[in-house]
Amino acid sequence: MDRKKTARAVSAEGETLKGKPVSASRSEMAEVVLPATTNPLGKLLGGHVMHLVDVAAAITASRHSNSYVVTASVDYIDFRNPVSIGEIVILMSQVNRVFHTSMEVGVKVFSENALTGERKHTTTAYVTFVALDEFSKQPKTVAPLIIKTPEEKRRWKEAGERRKYRLAMRFKKRKREE
To answer: pTM above the 0.70 mark?
Structure first.
C-alpha cells in the first residue's frame, strides 16, 4: 500500500482531507459491572455488552471523522468469556480501515477482576459507521487512515475482506427482496 496515495482525500466540497494515524482516534472506555446490567447468574447481559461496544466504537469513529456518525452494520460479535458482577469491563477500540464515507472500527472487550487485576478477553466486535455532515446529515467523506505498524496493516487488510463479504451479503439480500 502506498501511504502517500492514501494520506489525503478530497471531500465532496473539494477540500483536501489530511490523513490521520490509527493512534489519533484509538479509545478506551471502562465501567464497573453492577446488578442492574446482569442476568440472574450475575453475568453482564450480552445486550449491554453490545450497547457498550456500539458506544465505544462510535466514540472512535467520531474522533477519526470529526463528525457525527451512525452505525451502519455490526459484522461480527463474539462472546468468549462472561463478565461477572463487580468486575470492571474495559473496551478498547480503533479504526481498522476507512472507505469513502464509512469506516470499520474494531472493539476488544476485557473483564478485569478488581481485587486481583486478572484480565480476560471477553468479546470481539467489528462495527461499521457512516460519517454525517453536521448540517445536511448526509454522508460525508472521511479522512484517510494512516497505517504504520504491521498489526495496523493486518487489520486494514482484514477489514477490506470483511467489507467485500458484507457488501456481497447486502446485494444478495436485495436480490431476494425483489
So the answer is: yes
